[in-house]
# Entry
Amino acid sequence: MTLRIRPAAQDDVAAAAAVLADAFADYPWTRWTVDADAHDERLRDLHRLFLSAVAVPFGRVDLGEVGDELVSVTVWMPGTEVPDDVWAQVTPAAVELAGDRAAAAAEAEAAIAVHRTGEPHVALSSMGVLREHQGRGIGAATLTAGLEVADREGLPVHLETSAEANVRFYRRLGFTVTGDVALTGGGPRTWLMRREPRAITTGRAATEAGETPAR
# Structure
């Protein structure tokens, strides 16, 4: 099975948001920070909001396709600052979509934010694989393509995850835990992770061309 990686455009946002919502359906962080009422729809719309207003214009969104099917989405945010007026538009809509968990979401974000460093880096903001395709190596293949971009730029990659299984997964890709936060009020434990840039080798030509095997 060959996974084709391509950059997302605005026309891809709805489909990409649907993939991320499916992948994050039972994710501890979003279960804690997004209203349980119409949760799936709220989650999809939150992803759509972030992708369309922030990630596509100011970051890089990689789409993983097997044949004609979109199976994975990865969101990378460089150190470039997102303009304040963009956040001014996004924040009220995000608060409304979070519903009765808006206050918990704000508290959780504040608790994590104090542990973030200011060094130049690329942030792995979000990564999801359709649940029916998980366990086939698609996630690792999708991430490898993006990690190579960071390696070429000589930048470390930062991420945050509230799923312990993800910690083991990311460790296999070269990440190390730099800290963890236990959210108050029964919120999920969240790990902060970092990966140092690596030297590019000639054996990575398939991904350079936009295709990589997923097993």
Remarks:
- Residues 2-210 form a domain with the Aminopeptidase fold (CATH 3.40.630.30).
- The beta strands are 2-7, 60-66, 69-77, 122-129, 157-161, 176-182, 189-195, 211-213.
